[in-house]
Design goal:
Helix content is 60%, strand content 22%. The chain has 200 residues and is α+β, with helices and mostly antiparallel strands. It starts with a helix and ends with a helix. It has six helices and five strands; from the N terminus they run H-H-H-H-E-E-E-E-E-H-H. A hairpin with a 2-residue loop joins strand 4 and strand 5. Strands 1-2-3-4-5 form a five-stranded antiparallel sheet. The radius of gyration is 19 Å and the shape is globular. The chain has one domain: Nuclear Transport Factor 2, Chain: A (Roll), CATH 3.10.450.
Length: 200
């Protein structure tokens, strides 16, 4: 009986390791696409941004993140307003990441280790980004759904992107009395301003 238990635990560990490595390989390919775009000095900024936006739309759990970030304002909004908000939020996320990437100057990165959280069905992938002044630790939280992987959060120096965005958006939502329709107007204006800064 003891041997069966040991074998069962061993099989779980192997299964978790395989899942973690699959997610790590997937993430590595997606990051390389973005990095190669920013290494190409002949590629216009607009094209670089569109590549980031396409990656966000395809590989981030945008709807789930957007809903969480909207907080209590989500429940009272109409279907059309929610749909518009999700679209604007995904672009906001892409603009944020593009803005961070503008400072990219051929830093090296390494996916150091990955582990599978069996309880939450989430893979945690650690990435270290090296620069002249040191290194920074980034942890990607990746979940598989319908045979596809999606990024559900990003932790930079243990600070959650999703939690940070929720706090940031809550402050903005408060100014419009948590009216998502009115908030969409603010977010659209903010996105347009950020977009002009990135493409110029």
């Amino acid at each position: 009986m003891h041997r069966i238990k040991i074998l069962f635990v061993f099989l779980i560990l192997i299964s978790s390791s395989v899942k973690a490595n699959e997610a790590k390989d997937w993430l590595n390919k997606e990051i390389d696409i973005i990095i190669s775009a920013y290494q190409n000095n002949n590629l216009p900024n607009e094209n670089k941004f569109l590549m980031v936006e396409n990656t966000i739309n395809n590989n981030f759990a945008g709807t789930g993140i957007a809903k969480f970030v909207a907080g209590k304002s989500w429940n009272d909004a109409s279907k059309e307003v929610k749909k518009e908000y999700i679209k604007l939020f995904k672009r906001h996320l892409a603009l944020n990441i593009s803005s961070m990437m503008q400072g990219y100057s051929n830093q090296e990165y390494q996916l150091t280790n990955s582990s599978y959280d069996e309880k939450n069905k989430v893979t945690l992938i650690n990435m270290e980004i090296f620069s002249d002044t040191g290194s920074i630790q980034v942890t990607w939280r990746v979940k598989k759904s319908k045979d596809r992987y999606f990024v559900i959060d990003l932790l930079v120096a243990d600070i959650s992107l999703v939690v940070t965005k929720r706090s940031e958006f809550n402050s903005m939502l408060k100014t419009v009395d948590y009216n998502l329709s009115e908030f969409n107007k603010k977010l659209l204006s903010q996105n347009e301003s950020s977009y002009q800064k990135i493409i110029n």
